[in-house]
Design goal:
Elements (H helix, E strand, L loop, with lengths): L1 H15 L16 H9 L10 E3 L6 E3 L24 H5 L9 H15 L1 H9 L21 H12 L6 H9 L8 H17 L1 E2 L2 E2 L2 H13 L1 H4 L11
Length: 237
């Protein structure tokens, strides 16, 4: 059900909500705008090159392996601190305008659609709270064990939830994983972060669609964030 939901989500934006070809470049990189932006809202991580395929017949970008979703990437041994994959090779595929051209316009369109359908999307996502097959936290072996001082310093920030940022990255680095905590708590926290993105929240600030997209693209292309990622993620490609 979990993987079926992701495929259905992508199909909705790729087929039902697809704008005219004139509004987006036909390059394989630009055709990925829908999946990239939807993946950001759902906290989809682990977007290394082995999980991103290209259909040679159509040039479409095909994503696989949705196991690291709902911001679980921030709890990896080396936390993922970018909203989606936006490396220099990806940006080169957008042409002379880079990420500030049609890609940005496409992200703004997707963001507006997501905000307009926020209630419907939240209703669908709430079903995951009761799905016993969905894992809302990582196993102990998959997180980095930090010292007790680091754990205590970030535990409060992690329990408060919020969008992907420095607090959650620090939590992943410290290996924070509360014991004997009901899975519904992890589920609700993850869905709260998704809800915050759908509302355009950044802390206590409500962002406009344009500002929201601009900030997300900046985070995805920030050299400081990319340089701190796992080498196997190949942030230099």
């Amino acid at each position: 059900f979990f993987f079926f939901f992701f495929f259905s989500f992508f199909f909705f934006f790729l087929m039902i909500r697809r704008p005219p070809r004139s509004t987006l470049s036909s390059s394989s990189a630009a055709s990925d705008v829908y999946k990239r932006q939807v993946g950001y809202f759902l906290g989809l991580g682990d977007r290394h090159l082995s999980n991103i395929m290209i259909d040679y017949r159509s040039g479409e970008v095909v994503h696989i392996d949705f196991g690291i979703a709902f911001d679980k990437g921030t709890l990896l041994k080396i936390p993922e601190t970018v909203p989606f994959r936006m490396t220099r090779d990806v940006i080169d595929g957008f042409g002379i305008q880079g990420a500030s051209g049609e890609f940005k316009s496409g992200c703004e369109m997707i963001t507006r659609v997501m905000r307009d359908r926020r209630v419907l999307l939240q209703t669908v996502l709430e079903a995951f709270i009761y799905d016993p097959l969905v894992k809302w936290s990582l196993d102990v072996d998959n997180v980095k064990k930090g010292d007790e001082a680091s754990r205590r310093s970030v535990s409060v920030a992690v329990q408060q939830g919020g969008d992907v940022g420095a607090d959650e990255a620090a939590a992943g680095a410290a290996g924070v994983k509360p014991k004997n905590k009901p899975r519904a708590v992890d589920a609700q926290r993850a869905l709260t972060r998704v809800e915050g993105r759908l509302k355009g929240m950044d802390g206590s600030e409500v962002l406009s669609v344009e500002t929201h997209v601009k900030r997300v693209i900046h985070q995805a292309t920030d050299p400081a964030r990319l340089s701190g990622l796992f080498a196997g993620w190949t942030p230099f490609v």
